């Protein structure tokens, strides 16, 4: 297992090198640059030239890439051209928000999707199964921003039950030593802040979790249907084991394997920044930050932010792969 | 079905139970806290190093300049200087307000004034970045030591402190527009003691980008204003608290929170749900939503912008006056303003808003007249239709031009009726379009505009027409000359006369056709009182208070 882990971690090097190359040249292939974006109507040709020179954007691309690689390898992701803060500082501020949102969305998706998928499979062809099919189709096909706006309109604007923007009430004085607000509230034993943070997570998590929920539900259903027709399940039933025990020990556990893969992939995707959800709910995470960086052609933020997310994505997938061994003892890595 | 209903009910109950935790919409109910939503975080809180409205929204409350604007207007009134005068237009004497202190306890005096001006004058290297120190370069042109050949000789020469309460600013040439420019937050007074203590002048280039290494610009901005800095949570809020030792009338609210919400709709939603008390940059499409809501009201920001159609005079046949006049008569400006500005704009007759001195009703007018346009084209020896390459931006909504695509379509149709054949050409606003416009490569005609920075005609007319710009492609010594003279003139009456004359000359020459002065909107809860929107966007919060519904 250890050897496998080391090998996978070593594989990170070529992957990240490839990612860095892709990001670097993709960004520069976009028309225009940060000067034109930031100066707007004031972008005179003189100012643009001066700007490009000051930031070294007039040097050959390979020289720029080498400079970028050197500084990145030393752990310096640079400084944002638009807001002039260190990229690592913004990541420290924003990544915890995205993590909390992604986890909340996945908790919702798993806790609702897996049981619904299981029940749908057990009642295969029945009303609940058909209902779950329609439910999952809606979940997959409804645009996130539309669902987000509908949720906001009902629960925030009309009913006033839940907030429509941000991570916490704007007047909150809660302390945030780690920037993971839920964790902070627990550490500080600030239960009001905990409730406030959860309240701010509900609507974004429902909007963001809608697609993973639908996918997890369908995969769980399909997987359970497959597994319950396996020979070993039939054998277990033939042995006279109670149906609940067969489901728990033999069906559910084995059916979880493909679901775990999907959960891992979806979690990685959610951690990569929920652009639309974060934008609609003014949630200060990685997604809205990178969206603004694209508009501003903020090269350091895009390079640093995307590279960071690539590392996260690869690591999440590694964790998922390792977790297989715990879910299914037959799998051994060597 | 029963199971489903039960579970659905459970989910709804759970949501409602969680909703009950904490206080919904507590922001607006917290006594004395005014929460306003802008579009983004400030860049820094050192006003000398920023040029964006979101930074100024905050710095305007913390810092004060020598002169300020009368709320809701562009008229200059005393700020930290009670009086000022200049006999020759080059040496400007400011008599300073006495017994004023910065919020760190250090005194505001003539030495502090000179320290502030000299600080920017002596900027070197990355501090001369045009985006960071934009307004110094726009107003004073250069530094003591220019690091870039594109910078000009500095208008600022030196500053003399005569005793504690008199500061004299010496300019290298005569200028009057600089006085109006002093209202910009970039030239407000900052505590020299705090700047030194927290490293305001420390910065370095990291990967080619300037980064301040001191903490002043992030967590220790120190001014004399009605509010002082409390906290900045990046991406979430900037908190200011009342300066209880303020020299002037103290604010009635005890705290201001500025929340960045980049999505326009989300800003309005936050206003509707009561999470914020006010929202700036309301889009015309959201105006009816606010008007219909009984708890909300709409505030109008005085118009301080101009949308116009550039005519590139370096392109034949637009080098002929008759053809430019034909364009002016062929643009249905009144129709566009009526159709696409939701009643929040007026037809522009010249390049500066009517609120600004120098505006005159005596400029030549060009009402929509397709027949006259055609006859002008024929008089220029052209056969109809005349091809015109007309550019417009996509993916953008500017305060002066909320719907560029629709404006373009309407103008296109009216030009087609006026003897032109329009060849449409679009480009995304960021970054292609503006670059092409400024480079003079955005066709024969293009849609663009300008929002003023400070209350001086030089910021409009001077920006466009004081020198040659590839965008317009014309050389007209008379126009260049009169605008240079107007900028330098120290006698206000003479300045006004010069700008009126310049406006008439420009509208006769027609380097472009102005078409709209729009009126931006803000949304507020009805209980918010005393909020006066500024034409230049830097609204003071000191007068805000809460009344009954």
Characterize the structure shown.
The complex is a heterodimer of chains A (334) and B (549). Chain A is mainly alpha-helical and 334 residues long. Chain A is built from 14 helices and no strands. In chain A, helix 11 packs antiparallel against helix 14. Chain A is globular, with a radius of gyration of 24 Å. Chain B has 549 residues and is α+β, with helices and mostly antiparallel strands. Chain B is built from 18 helices and 23 strands. A seven-stranded mixed sheet of chain B has the order 10-11-12-1-13-21-14, with helices on both faces. In chain B, helix 14 links the parallel strand 17 and strand 18. Residues 1-30 of chain B have low confidence and may be disordered. At the A-B interface, helix 2, helix 3, helix 4, helix 5 and helix 6 of A face helix 1, strand 9, strand 12, helix 9 and helix 15 of B.
Topology of this protein?
The complex is a heterodimer of chains A (334) and B (549).
Chain A: H1 2-29, H2 34-39, H3 45-54, H4 61-73, H5 87-122, H6 127-141, H7 144-158, H8 181-188, H9 191-227, H10 231-238, H11 243-271, H12 275-280, H13 286-296, H14 299-327
Helix pairs in contact in A: 1-14, 5-6, 5-9, 5-11, 6-9, 7-9, 8-9, 9-11, 10-11, 11-14, 13-14
Chain B: H1 2-19, H2 26-29, E1 33-38, H3 53-62, E2 67-69, E3 76-78, E4 81-85, E5 91-96, H4 110-121, H5 134-140, E6 156-162, E7 166-171, H6 177-181, H7 192-197, E8 203-206, E9 209-212, H8 216-219, E10 227-233, E11 237-242, E12 255-260, H9 264-272, E13 278-282, H10 287-292, E14 296-300, E15 305-311, H11 321-330, H12 333-340, E16 345-347, H13 370-379, E17 386-394, H14 404-416, E18 420-428, H15 429-439, E19 445-451, H16 461-465, H17 477-488, H18 492-509, E20 512-518, E21 521-525, E22 528-529, E23 545-546
Helix pairs in contact in B: 11-13, 12-14, 17-18
């Amino acid at each position: 297992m250890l050897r496998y882990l080391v090998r996978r971690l070593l594989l990170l090097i070529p992957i990240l090198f490839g990612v860095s190359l892709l990001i670097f040249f993709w960004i520069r292939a976009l028309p225009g640059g940060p000067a034109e974006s930031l100066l707007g109507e004031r972008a005179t040709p003189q100012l643009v030239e001066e700007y490009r020179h000051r930031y070294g954007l007039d040097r050959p691309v390979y020289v720029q890439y080498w400079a970028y690689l050197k500084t990145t390898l030393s752990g310096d992701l640079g400084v944002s051209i638009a807001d002039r803060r260190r990229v690592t500082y913004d990541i420290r501020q924003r990544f915890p928000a995205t993590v909390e949102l992604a986890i909340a969305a996945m908790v919702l998706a798993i806790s609702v999707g897996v049981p619904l998928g299981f029940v749908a499979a057990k009642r295969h062809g029945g009303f609940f199964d058909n209902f779950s099919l329609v439910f999952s189709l809606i979940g997959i096909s409804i645009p996130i921003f539309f669902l987000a706006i509908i949720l906001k309109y009902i629960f925030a604007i009309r009913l006033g039950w839940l907030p429509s923007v941000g991570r916490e009430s704007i007047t909150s004085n809660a302390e945030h030593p780690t920037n993971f607000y839920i964790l902070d509230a627990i550490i500080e034993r600030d239960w009001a802040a905990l409730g406030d943070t959860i309240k701010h997570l509900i609507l974004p998590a429902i909007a963001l979790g809608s697609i993973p929920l639908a996918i997890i539900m369908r995969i769980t259903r399909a997987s359970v249907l497959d597994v319950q027709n396996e020979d070993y399940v039939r054998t277990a039933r033939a042995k006279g084991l109670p149906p609940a025990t067969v489901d728990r020990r033999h069906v559910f556990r084995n059916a979880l394997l493909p679901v775990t893969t999907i959960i891992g992939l979806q979690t990685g995707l959610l951690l990569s920044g929920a652009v639309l959800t974060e934008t609609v709910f003014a949630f200060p995470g990685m997604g809205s930050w990178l969206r603004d960086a694209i508009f501003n052609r903020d090269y350091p933020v895009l390079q640093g932010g995307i590279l960071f997310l690539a590392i996260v994505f690869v690591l999440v997938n590694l964790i998922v792969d390792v977790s297989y061994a715990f879910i299914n003892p037959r799998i051994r890595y060597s | 079905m029963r199971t489903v209903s039960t579970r659905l009910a459970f989910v709804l109950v759970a949501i409602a139970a969680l909703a009950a935790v904490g206080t919904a919409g507590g922001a607006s109910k917290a006594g004395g806290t005014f929460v306003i939503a802008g579009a983004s975080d400030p860049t820094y809180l050192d006003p000398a190093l920023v040029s964006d409205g979101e930074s100024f929204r905050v710095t305007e409350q913390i810092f004060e300049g020598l002169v300020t604007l009368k709320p809701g207007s562009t008229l200059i009134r005393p700020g930290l200087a009670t009086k000022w005068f200049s006999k020759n237009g080059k040496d400007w004497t400011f008599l300073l307000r006495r017994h004023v202190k910065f919020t760190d306890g250090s005194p505001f005096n003539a030495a502090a004034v000179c320290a502030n001006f000299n600080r920017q004058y002596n900027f070197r290297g990355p501090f001369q970045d045009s985006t960071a120190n934009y307004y110094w370069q726009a107003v004073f042109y250069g530094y003591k030591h220019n690091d870039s050949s594109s910078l000009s000789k500095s208008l600022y020469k030196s500053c003399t402190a005569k005793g504690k309460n008199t500061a004299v600013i010496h300019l290298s040439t005569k200028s009057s527009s600089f006085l109006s420019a002093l209202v910009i937050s970039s030239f407000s007074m900052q505590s020299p003691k705090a700047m030194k203590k927290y490293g305001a002048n420390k910065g370095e280039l990291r990967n080619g980008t300037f980064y301040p290494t001191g903490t002043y610009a992030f967590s220790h901005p120190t001014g004399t204003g009605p509010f002082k800095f409390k906290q900045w949570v990046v991406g979430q809020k900037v908190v200011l608290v009342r300066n209880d030792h303020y020299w002037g009338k103290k604010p009635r609210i005890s705290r201001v929170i500025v929340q960045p919400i980049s999505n326009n709709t989300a800003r309005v939603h936050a206003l509707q749900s009561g999470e914020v008390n006010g929202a700036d940059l309301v889009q015309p499409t959201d105006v009816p939503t606010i008007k219909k809501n009984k708890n909300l009201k709409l505030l109008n920001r005085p118009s301080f912008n101009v949308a116009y159609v550039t005519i590139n005079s370096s392109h034949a046949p637009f080098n002929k006056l008759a053809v430019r006049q034909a364009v002016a008569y062929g643009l249905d400006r009144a129709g566009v303003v009526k159709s696409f500005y939701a009643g929040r704009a007026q037809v522009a007759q010249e390049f500066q808003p009517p609120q600004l001195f120098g505006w005159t009703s005596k400029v030549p007018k060009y009402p929509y007249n397709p027949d006259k346009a055609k006859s002008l084209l024929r008089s220029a020896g052209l056969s109809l239709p005349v091809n015109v390459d007309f550019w417009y931006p996509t993916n953008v909504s500017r305060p002066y031009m909320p719907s560029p695509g629709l404006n373009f379509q309407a103008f296109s149709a009216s030009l087609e009726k006026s003897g032109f054949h329009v060849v449409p050409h679009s480009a995304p606003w960021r970054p292609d379009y503006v670059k092409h416009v400024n480079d003079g490569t955005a066709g024969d005609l293009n849609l663009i505009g300008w929002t003023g920075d400070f209350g001086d005609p030089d910021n409009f007319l001077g920006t466009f027409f004081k020198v040659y710009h590839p965008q317009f492609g014309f050389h007209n010594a008379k126009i260049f000359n009169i605008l240079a003279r107007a900028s330098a003139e120290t006698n206000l009456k003479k300045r006004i006369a010069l700008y009126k004359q310049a406006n008439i000359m420009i509208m006769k020459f027609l380097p472009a056709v102005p078409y709209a002065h729009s009126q931006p909107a803000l949304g507020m809860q009805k209980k918010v009182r005393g909020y006066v929107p500024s034409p230049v966007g830097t609204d003071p919060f000191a007068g805000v208070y809460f009344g009954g519904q």
